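Customer escalation, tier 2.

The customer says the design service returned an amino acid string that "doesn't look like it belongs to this structure." They asked us to rerun it and document both sides in this ticket. The original structure tokens are below, unchanged.
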């Protein structure tokens, strides 16, 4: 079982996205995702999102919100609990990321990018002011076979 964070830095009508193209054996290879990563021993979700965002972008979050918990179940990978954040304030200057290419992408263009199918569900939720949510996503390979939002099946 894995605990991780994912953060979408928001600048007006854009999110800072990471195109995962630099690691050979990356489960997210060629996909666009937010920034984040796995918890280190003793970290809270907030500790992890602050550290991972700084490591991947060089930016220090000063305004962020814990938006939801996404449970990934897969026939290829261990179950992962991903703690989802958005951020609208930070300090520092962005630097290149060793895991992929960072780019500001208009929210209206996100769904046309190579994304995990389940990411499209929570990106739509982030675009509303929905309170904290729990989303379970079950995959067979790269195919999304089940989505459960706050205990109700939606796919």
């Amino acid at each position: 079982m894995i605990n991780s964070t994912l953060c979408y830095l928001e600048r007006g009508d854009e999110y800072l996205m990471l195109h995962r193209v630099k690691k050979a054996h990356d489960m997210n290879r060629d996909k666009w995702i937010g920034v984040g990563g796995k918890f280190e021993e003793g970290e809270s979700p907030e500790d992890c999102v602050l550290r991972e965002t700084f490591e991947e972008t060089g930016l220090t979050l000063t305004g962020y919100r814990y938006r939801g918990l996404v449970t990934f179940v897969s026939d290829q990978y261990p179950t992962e609990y991903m703690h989802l954040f958005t951020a609208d304030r930070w300090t520092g200057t962005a630097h290149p990321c060793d895991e992929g290419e960072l780019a500001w992408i208009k929210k209206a263009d996100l769904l046309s990018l190579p994304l995990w199918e389940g990411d499209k569900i929570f990106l739509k939720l982030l675009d509303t002011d929905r309170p904290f949510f729990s989303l379970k996503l079950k995959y067979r390979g790269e195919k999304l076979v089940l989505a459960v939002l706050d205990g109700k099946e939606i796919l």
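Tier 2 assessment: The sequence is consistent with the input. DSSP finds two helices and ten strands in the chain. The beta strands are 2-11, 14-19, 32-33, 35-38, 60-74, 80-91, 101-106, 133-140, 143-149, 152-153. Sent an explanation to the customer and offered a walkthrough call.
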